[in-house]
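Ticket #4471: structure output looks truncated?

Reporter: J.K.
Steps to reproduce: submitted the chain below (171 residues) through the standard prediction queue, then opened the result file.
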Amino acid sequence: MRRVPQTRQATRTRRLPGRWLAAALIAGTLALLAPGVSYATASQSGPAAGGCKGITPAVFPARGFIANPARTQGGHLWWRRSADGTSVCIGTVVEWVRYTTTATKTWKVIVYSARHPGGQVVARTTFTLVRGWYFWSFGVHQAYSGLSAVCLTADESFGIPCIAFGPLRAS
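Returned output as attached by the reporter:
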């Protein structure tokens, strides 16, 4: 029997993401203020070895149906720049989607980088869901050289919010 992936409906976990993001922001701030904590948090082997983990939170703007119930964000992710400044590790990416009626949509995380300037879908899943607010976590955990943006979509008609990354140093 094939197991169908389930997304979490926002009405059941409405308070968890806000608290989770607040905890991440506090931990990130403390990591910046205490070098020892920063080293302990980010001292895993390089971003490409053993899967990378982001430590800095970033928020996608709400766009169209890509939005949380408060319309304060379309999702969020955790990232970190490599020590030499040539690549960016993208950790977990969380996407919020509002369904106004039962529909089937393919949720995607798209990365724009030097290697893929036209965009590369790095995570996707398809859901048929009833009316409501939903979110899903994508474990990307990859480093991208020349990263310019990370975007979300649940089919283009639902909106495409992006987080832009500044220029990276040449290798």
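Triage note (M.O.): checked the attachment and the full token line is present. The helical segments are 16-33, 35-42.
Status: closed, working as intended.
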